[in-house]
Amino acid sequence: MSLNGPWPSWAGLPELSGAAREEKDLRISAMIKEKLAAPLDGASPIDRRIENFLNEHLAAVRSDGPIKLPEKLNLPTHGMARQLSLPCDGDRYVSPLIKSFRCMNGVVHNPVSDKRTTKGVFHVATGGLPVADDK
């Protein structure tokens, strides 16, 4: 794995070669491995708020201790979530809520109730014309 570039000249990053390039690649690789192996530091603020909300509102009907959200799955590498979103032995996933399939540049997810576009219509603007706010 090479992390050297080619960088655009305006980026101001040095061109590395030989031992310097290998050393940088090894340092970055070691850092990624360390982050993957390290446990996450407790619950995030939003997780604590969700747990507190659930515990407060369900206190009257729940007697077996506080609710704890499951541990997080940390996906620090680009593309990992895309690969994990489909079955390992297939290129598509269909449920009553979503249809997903692998394409050349990634994975397409089509929810059944997608409110972002009008069903069956794509809105294309050419020449810099704005798309209406409700589209």
Profile the largest sheet.
3 strands, antiparallel
- Helical segment count: 3
In the sheet with the most strands, the strands line up as: 1-2-3
Range of helix content:
25-40%
Number of strands: 3
Which consecutive residue ranges, at least 5 long each, have pLDDT under 50?
1-5
Describe the structure.
The protein is α+β, with helices and mostly antiparallel strands and 135 residues long. It has two domains: 14-77, no CATH class; 79-135, no CATH class. It contains three helices and three strands, in the order H-H-H-E-E-E. It has helices at residues 18-37, 45-58, 80-84; strands at residues 92-94, 98-103, 106-111. It has a three-stranded antiparallel β-sheet, with no helix packed on it. A hairpin with a 3-residue loop joins strand 1 (92-94) and strand 2. The longest helix has 20 residues, at 18-37. It is flat. The chain starts with 17 loop residues before the first helix and ends in a 24-residue tail after the last strand. Residues 1-5 have low confidence and may be disordered.
